Amino acid sequence: MLCAKTTFICPECGEPHIPELPHNLTPMYRGGFYKKNGRGPNWEDAAAHCHPDVRKEFLRILKEVKKEYRQKKEPAKSRP
Hints:
Layout: H1 27-37, H2 43-46, H3 52-73
């Protein structure tokens, strides 16, 4: 998670992060979100409170990281 030194402990996720950045998907955040919404959260939910520019960039980076992770996990295709 993107994190700068801060003494702020988020009341939603219980983790230190700058309030303008997305929540961490901690058990505390997931449980509270589930109680309020009847479903588990995703990263879009965790970033919903962020400024639109921050949310857009966060989700873009997340998508890029997921793509790189999937590429590393895929087994190399063997040639016949």
